[in-house]
Design brief:
With 257 residues, the protein is α/β, with parallel strands linked by helices. It has eleven helices and eight strands.
């Protein structure tokens, strides 16, 4: 973790906690957020709960994001959600290109770049996700794949006037209980930082690079201690406020040291 960049801990609830459970979870997150003043805490509810969660968190430091966004501002796209709709619900951030969107919904690098631009057009700060599959990793193609994914969004990131983040989430570690070692995560994060710096030194300094992939309270500190790991995109563990709080407190401890 680098002292120049404020750590960001984001909890992606995925297809869980879409109603009253989401409000209760937001209440619990709000309770611990004041104990981590040097950390940005963000929650990512399903669409059905964004407005209620944002209302519950109003006046707190906790940020709210959407899990996805359509590339168009409006139109006949049944089941989709626009950047403007997310803003109207109270979101200020959005995830784009999550590995589950790429894997299950066949989103391409070009799709992710379009969605990233759409997010910025609607004053949403994006978390652009990148990462390799197990097959790609075993073939020694991790950096090749991740570089391609970063290259697809590099121009959009460089033009952004809002805070942006990139999340490295190896697909083989999503929801599997497996995670990259701190050294392995740092190697990819350092490469991403280098690609950002090659585009613009300032871009590399201001974009936060998060690690995602079975992040838990017991492995967060080791991952977050790496110099190019600026936070975490947390999945299953974020459904328990105590677990998310422990991860945020690990980041707070490192940020203070």
């Amino acid at each position: 973790m680098n002292a120049k960049r404020r750590p960001l801990i984001a909890g992606n609830w995925k297809m869980h906690a879409g109603g009253l459970d989401g409000v209760r979870l937001a209440m619990a997150v709000r309770e611990f957020a004041s104990s981590v003043p040097h950390v940005d805490v963000l929650v990512v509810p399903p669409y059905t709960a964004i407005a209620a969660v944002a209302a519950e968190l109003e006046g707190s430091s906790v940020l709210v994001a959407g899990q996805n966004v359509h590339g168009k501002p409006h139109g006949a796209f049944t089941g989709e959600i626009s950047g403007g709709m997310l803003r109207d619900c109270g979101a200020t951030w959005v995830i784009v290109g999550h590995s589950e969107r790429r894997q299950h919904f066949r989103e391409t690098d070009a799709d992710v770049a379009i969605k990233l631009a759409a997010a910025l057009d609607h004053d949403l700060s994006p978390i652009a996700c990148v990462g390799e599959t197990l097959e790609q990793r075993e073939a020694g193609k991790t950096l090749e794949v991740v570089e391609r994914q970063v290259a697809a969004v590099l121009d959009v990131l460089a033009s952004a006037k809002r805070a942006c983040a990139v999340a490295y989430e190896p697909v083989w570690a999503i929801g599997t209980g497996k995670n990259a070692s701190p050294a392995d995560a740092e190697a990819v994060h350092a490469a991403i930082r280098g690609w950002l710096a090659a585009k613009d030194t300032g871009l590399a300094e201001r974009v936060r690079i998060l690690y995602g992939g079975s992040v838990k309270a017991d492995n967060a500190a080791g991952l977050l201690a790496e110099p190019n790991v600026d936070g975490a995109l947390v999945g299953g563990a974020s459904l328990d406020a105590g677990s998310l709080g422990a991860i945020a407190k690990a980041a707070e401890s490192l940020a203070r040291s």
